[in-house]
Structure formats: structure tokens, C-alpha cells
């Protein structure tokens, strides 16, 4: 309990001061004039002024509060290296024992774990965790903070005023002095690249705790495939050119050979994600004659902003000569030599739409198309009655690449095209809208070209299992054969139409080797806190998948079928960095958080990073390996500015309390005040009346 005196003037303070000045002057004059009872009169005036000041006796009931000590334990991934976790846990247990003695002196101890899990932001953020732990504590109650860490902290404030309290902050560092480690540091990382062109990546191999200048073997991988094996000098910048092979993320890994006795090989590898951007896909569409379905192809291809379409329709074949001079014809001559000899390799896809030989293309140009396909090009033949005519493109060198020969007949009867068993698995036709019902919920066709000797993969069929859509690989290229010319009925909405946009767009992009439409493909993607592994396959089962986390630990997953040809598994992404999935044949990569986490950049333990900023608070830094029990002695400091020594650390314990009750007794209120004033006046009157 504390007693005190408080004032609550009855009049404004300036008037109270004026009254006090006047009363003092009168009392002084009485004393100077040696007036009888001058002192008592002055006392009576003082009591009157004091009554106007309205003094009160106060009584406070205070409850002492504990001071708070925060201990932040580093649980980040870098603590897994060596025996740091064991050292940290031993130091934590010893520190709990030593801090328990401070509880008897009114201290509250708070232990906080920081930096664990993939949900953490990049790097070790101990000061952020400290601020969160002390958010409900007034600054005057903070006795200090202690970090148990490896010294690699990535949120050190620029000045200690940002802490919000004035108390010592100490650090006890795990790990050993003189640790060795090798890492790859990126110096130039392009973000985008044109598909088919090279991008240059700059990097440096850095050896910590070892002399620079060593010759180091480096392996460069693109999406898991080795593309280069240069030899570089440690400490010097090097560069490597990598071709961008596909649209989307191209993940390039640069991995250095290990250093003898190094702390961990995790940071021997750095990764760059380069987004491949396609220069416009060039498509050549040759229509053999005007027909009602021709517009379907043109509209579909023109609607895709990534496609540069060159379209020719043969309106006047060479045999149609009517004597009109060439310079008076409004038709554009078909530049056959330019397209099929000089610039054929510039096209990503060639489409023959109901094209039959009409003397427009010499046979040598069909030979060029065959070589174009075998060397990686794409060919789509949309056939109709032309395919069974004498001028069929099958009666050209294209016979070598086309997946089916015409019988010379057509089946003309209403039917609904359906998906084959392979078609239900193939990415081009899998889960086409309407295919889930039997028969499929799309419009009928009325004509199909009969073929024989089909090869490749039939993904759609008609009456008696006759193929409608055949897909095949020839050499490095791809070929598709459409054997009905009634897909335009779907586009016109006949009988409700059909998924012609989905089908024809997937078909054209499969021909142009879109990675997502590969029949055999492994994907690894991040969805929120989870990673999803997907395996596309034409088989009935999917192989087991081996997943490797950023630190090199592996786990085996068994995928479950989610639809024909697609298998999937989900697991938590509990670590930042580059994850890898492999089935032995295919490899997929995905990054969680930053590609090269700061947590794995510099992994050697250090006392120097924290020393300057902690010294500003009066705190100290020690190594666990240098101290008995792994921690210094704990000393309660109630005054002074020194909080650290060679083998001890101080905590600023303070006397802090909170008011729980307040009593107030006015001295001049009511009868007591009247009696005091009357006593003063009576004393002055009695002295004067003698």
C-alpha cells in the first residue's frame, strides 16, 4: 500500500496562483509591520488558499507484476545440419533449469519455436517471432530475450529501436567453428526466354572455410536432363547457355561437385526457372476446295492469338484454263515453291483439308513434307471424299507417313462417334464434354472414310469400330488423320453440336508437341499447402513415384486412378525449395516458395552476424560448444548497463506493479475542512484580542 497527496483545485489554476500570491503578500506585510498575530493570520490565509487547492490524501493498492524473458528457439531447416539440433535441445533443457531460479524473483519465462515448416516465409525470422511473443507485454516488463540459433538470421532490424523495448538480447549459437561448405550462388538469372533460343545463366561456386581457386566439376540440368558438364574455378563467375525447349517453366539446375568434409550438399545446387515464351506458332492450312466445313478450321485457328495462320484454298487448279490473261486474274497464285521448299521448316503444323492432287504440288514437294515430318514436323490430314479419289494424297510419297490406307469406299449412314479404350486415356480425347454418356451426347455424323492397315492410335471410332481419328508418331514428328468431314456439324450446332473446339484445339496442340498433352507424362504441382503428383499414361496402371525433398530425403508414393489414363497422389509440402518426382523414366520438378531459399544459401554457423546488433542492447553472443552445459550463467541485473561477460549473461529484472485499488480522502471537504479553517481564524482572533 502506498500513501500520497493529490490536489484537485476548486478554481482555475491561474486564479489559485493569484490568490496564493495575494495571501503571501498580505502575510509578508503583516510580518514586516510587526502586527500582533501576524504569523497566525498568515497561517489562516495559507489554510484558505490550501482549501481552494482541495488537497486529498490518496491510498494505492498495488500488485507486483512479473518481468518477462523470451527464449526464441531456431527450428529452421539449417538447424538439421550436423548435430545442431542435438546441441540446441541440450542447451534449451539447461537454460530452462537456470531460468527457473528467476521465477522465484518474479520473472516469467516464455519459450517460442520459430522457423519450422514450409508455411514460413523465406529465411530464418527470429526477430519477427520475438516481436509476436512479446506483443502483449508492455516494454517496461521485458527483462530480455535469448536466441538459440545457428547464427543465420535473416530479419535482423536496422536498429534496435525497432524492437520496441530496452533490454538485453543474447544469442547462443549452435554448430562448430571452422565449418566447411560449398555452395552455388547465381549471378545472372533470366526470367523469360523464346522457345528454341538460348538463355545465358551466370553463377559462381563459393567455398566457405576452404581456399578459393579450386577446380570444380559442375552439372547443368534442364528439367532433370543433363545439358552440360563444365569445369569452373571456385570463387570466379562462370556462364552457361541453355536452350529453352518448351513453353512454360523450364527449370535449370546447376549442381557443383561436393567438397570434402563439407557441412551439407544441399546448397551445392541452385535452380533457375525460365518461362518459355513461344514465338507465334506458324500453321499452314491448305484447303483443296471450298466446302462448308472449311470455315471451321479457319475460325478455330484464327481465334488462337498464339497461332500465325497461312491459309490457301485451291479455287482454280491448273487444268481449268479459260484463256484469261494471268495479269487480269484476281486470284492469288499458290506460292508452292516458297512454301514447300524454301520455308517449309518455318511451319509448326501443315494441314491438308480435303486436299486431292490437282497438279498444284509436284511429287518432289510431297517428298519434302515427308522429310519435314520425320525431322520433327507435324502433319494433319482432314479427309473426305478426296481420300478415296484417284488424286488422294495417299497416292503420293505421303503414303510413308499416313497411318491408314483408303479402301476406296465410304460408309454413309448416321452414327455417333465414340471414344475407343485408348481414346478414353489419351490426353487429346480424354474427358471430352459429352463423352461420359453412352452413346456420347453430341451430334451424329453421316459419313466416314473406310480404311485398312491402320497403325498408330485410334482414339475415336464409328460404325463397326472403324477409326475416325488416328494419331501416329513418325520419326521425330507427328501425324493425325481425320476420316470424317462432318466435324463442321458440331460447329454449326446440329443436334446440339459437339466439343469441336476442345477436340480440334487439343489435336493441333498435340501435333505441335504441347507438353501437357503428352501421352506419357509426369507432373508435380503445388496447390496451397500440398503437392500433387499426376501421371498420364496409356497403360492400365501407373508406376510408383519417388519424391525427393529439397534436402535430398525421399519418399515413395503409390498413385490412385482418378480417371482413365490419369493417376494422382497428394502429400503435404513441408519444406521450402525444389522438389523432384521420378518414376524411373520421367522426371518432374516443382518449387515451393523461392527457388533458392535463403535458409540453404549460407549454412555455416556464425557468431558474427548477430554480434553488432545485439551489442547495441548490451547483450552477448556465445557458442554452445565453448560453454559448460551449452549455455552461460544467468544473472539477474536490477541496475547497471552491463549485461554480458565471458561466461555469463544478464537479464534486466525490474520492479513493476499495477494499481488494483485507489482510496481518496479530501482534507477540506465537509465538516473536517470547516473545522480546520475555523481553527485557523479562531487562533488569529484570539491572539489579536489579548
From TrEMBL:
SUPFAM superfamilies the UniProt entry points to: Class I glutamine amidotransferase-like (SSF52317)
Transmembrane annotation, as ranges: 12-32, 39-57, 664-686
Keywords: Membrane, Transmembrane, Transmembrane helix
Transmembrane helix listed as a keyword: yes
Keyword Transmembrane helix: yes
Name by which UniProt lists this protein: Membrane protein
Source species of the chain: Ancylobacter defluvii
Amino acid at each position: 500500500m502506498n500513501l500520497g497527496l493529490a490536489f484537485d483545485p476548486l478554481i482555475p489554476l491561474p486564479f489559485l496562483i493569484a490568490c496564493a500570491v495575494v495571501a503571501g503578500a498580505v502575510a509578508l506585510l503583516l510580518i514586516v509591520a510587526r502586527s500582533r498575530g501576524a504569523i497566525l493570520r498568515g497561517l489562516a490565509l495559507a489554510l484558505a488558499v490550501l482549501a481552494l487547492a482541495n488537497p486529498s490524501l490518496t491510498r494505492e493498492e498495488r500488485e507486483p507484476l512479473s518481468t518477462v524473458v523470451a527464449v526464441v528457439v531456431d527450428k529452421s531447416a539449417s538447424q538439421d545440419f550436423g548435430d545442431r539440433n542435438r546441441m540446441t535441445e541440450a542447451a534449451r533443457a539447461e537454460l530452462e533449469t537456470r531460468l527457473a531460479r528467476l521465477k522465484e524473483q518474479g520473472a516469467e519465462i516464455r519459450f517460442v519455436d520459430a522457423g519450422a515448416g514450409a508455411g514460413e516465409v523465406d529465411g530464418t525470422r527470429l526477430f519477427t517471432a520475438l516481436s509476436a511473443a512479446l506483443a502483449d507485454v508492455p516494454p517496461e516488463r521485458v527483462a530480455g530475450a535469448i536466441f538459440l540459433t545457428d547464427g543465420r538470421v535473416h530479419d535482423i532490424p536496422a536498429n534496435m529501436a525497432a524492437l520496441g523495448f530496452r533490454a538485453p538480447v543474447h544469442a547462443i549459437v549452435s554448430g562448430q567453428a571452422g565449418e566447411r561448405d560449398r555452395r552455388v550462388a547465381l549471378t545472372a538469372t533470366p526470367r523469360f526466354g523464346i522457345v528454341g533460343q538460348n538463355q545465358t545463366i551466370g553463377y559462381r561456386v563459393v567455398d566457405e572455410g576452404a581456399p578459393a581457386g579450386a577446380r570444380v566439376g559442375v552439372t547443368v540440368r534442364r528439367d532433370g536432363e543433363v545439358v552440360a558438364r563444365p569445369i569452373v574455378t571456385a570463387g570466379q563467375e562462370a556462364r552457361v547457355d541453355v536452350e529453352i525447349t518448351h513453353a512454360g517453366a523450364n527449370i535449370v539446375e546447376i549442381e557443383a561437385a561436393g567438397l570434402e568434409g563439407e557441412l551439407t550438399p544441399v546448397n551445392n545446387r541452385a535452380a533457375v526457372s525460365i518461362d518459355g515464351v513461344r514465338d507465334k506458332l506458324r500453321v499452314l492450312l491448305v484447303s483443296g476446295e471450298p466446302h462448308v466445313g472449311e470455315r471451321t478450321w479457319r475460325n478455330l485457328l484464327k481465334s488462337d492469338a498464339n497461332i500465325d495462320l497461312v491459309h490457301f484454298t485451291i479455287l482454280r487448279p491448273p487444268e481449268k484454263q479459260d484463256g484469261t490473261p494471268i495479269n487480269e486474274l484476281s486470284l492469288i497464285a499458290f506460292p508452292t515453291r516458297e512454301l514447300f521448299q524454301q520455308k517449309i521448316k518455318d511451319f509448326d503444323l501443315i494441314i491438308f483439308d480435303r486436299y486431292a492432287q490437282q497438279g498444284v504440288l509436284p511429287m518432289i514437294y510431297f517428298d519434302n513434307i515427308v522429310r519435314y515430318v520425320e525431322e520433327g514436323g507435324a502433319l494433319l490430314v482432314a479427309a473426305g471424299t478426296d481420300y478415296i479419289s484417284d488424286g488422294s494424297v495417299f497416292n503420293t510419297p505421303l503414303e510413308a507417313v499416313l497411318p491408314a490406307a483408303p479402301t476406296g469406299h465410304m460408309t454413309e449412314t448416321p452414327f455417333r462417334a465414340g471414344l475407343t479404350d485408348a481414346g478414353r486415356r489419351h490426353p487429346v480425347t480424354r474427358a471430352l464434354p459429352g463423352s461420359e454418356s453412352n452413346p456420347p451426347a453430341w451430334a451424329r455424323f453421316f459419313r466416314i472414310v473406310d480404311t485398312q492397315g491402320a497403325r498408330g492410335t485410334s482414339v475415336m471410332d464409328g460404325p463397326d469400330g472403324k477409326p475416325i481419328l488416328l494419331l501416329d508418331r513418325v520419326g521425330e514428328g507427328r501425324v493425325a488423320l481425320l476420316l470424317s468431314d462432318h466435324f463442321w456439324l458440331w460447329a454449326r450446332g446440329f443436334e446440339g453440336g459437339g466439343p469441336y473446339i476442345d477436340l480440334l484445339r487439343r489435336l493441333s496442340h498435340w501435333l505441335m508437341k504441347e507438353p501437357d498433352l503428352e501421352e506419357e507424362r509426369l507432373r508435380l504441382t503445388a496447390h496451397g499447402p500440398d503437392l500433387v503428383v499426376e501421371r498420364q499414361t496409356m497403360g492400365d496402371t501407373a508406376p510408383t513415384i519417388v519424391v525427393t525433398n529439397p534436402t535430398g530425403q525421399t519418399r515413395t508414393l503409390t498413385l490412385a486412378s482418378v480417371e482413365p489414363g490419369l493417376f494422382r497422389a497428394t502429400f503435404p509440402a513441408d519444406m521450402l525449395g525444389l522438389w523432384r518426382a521420378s518414376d524411373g523414366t520421367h522426371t518432374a520438378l516443382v518449387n515451393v516458395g523461392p527457388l533458392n531459399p535463403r535458409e540453404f544459401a549460407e549454412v555455416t554457423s556464425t557468431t558474427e552476424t548477430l554480434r553488432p546488433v545485439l551489442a547495441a542492447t548490451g547483450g552477448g553472443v556465445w557458442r554452445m560448444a565453448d560453454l559448460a552445459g551449452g549455455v552461460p550463467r544467468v544473472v539477474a541485473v536490477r541496475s547497471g548497463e552491463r549485461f554480458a561477460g565471458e561466461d555469463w549473461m544478464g537479464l534486466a529484472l525490474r520492479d513493476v506493479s499495477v494499481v488494483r485499488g485507489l482510496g481518496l480522502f479530501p482534507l477540506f471537504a465537509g465538516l473536517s475542512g470547516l473545522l480546520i479553517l475555523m481553527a485557523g481564524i479562531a487562533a488569529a482572533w484570539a491572539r489579536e484580542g489579548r
